[in-house]
Amino acid sequence: MKLLEWYPARLETINGMTAIVCTYRRQLEDHPPVLVWVYCFENNDRLVILTMSYRENETQIWKPLFEKSLSSFRI
Questions:
Q1: Distance CA 75, CA 71 (A)
Q2: Shortest CA distance to 62 belongs to which of 50, 70, 54?
C-alpha cells in the first residue's frame, strides 16, 4: 500500500461535537485510489475514532451514503 496524498488535519464540528479530521488518499498495488477520512472525537476520558473510506471511482455511489452516515453519528 502507498500513501498518495495527505491533507492537513483540521477541526470540524459534527452534530455539535468537535472532531479532529485527518484525510488522505491511498492505493494498494494497481487498484483504484481510496479516499479515507479519520474522525477523532473526545468523549470525557475516551477517544472515539470513526474511519470512513471509499474508492475514488465510486464517489457517486458512496458519497451520499457517507454524508448521511456522518450526519447521523452521535456519541
A1: 12
A2: 54
Distance, CA of 74 to CA of 17 (rounded, Å) = 8
The CA dihedral of 37, 14, 40, 28, to the nearest 10 degrees, is -10
pLDDT in tens, the chain (75 residues): 999 999 999 999 999 999 999 999 999 999 999 999 999 999 999 999 999 999 999 999 999 999 999 999 999
pTM of the full predicted structure?
Answer: 0.90
DSSP-derived secondary structure letter, 32 = P
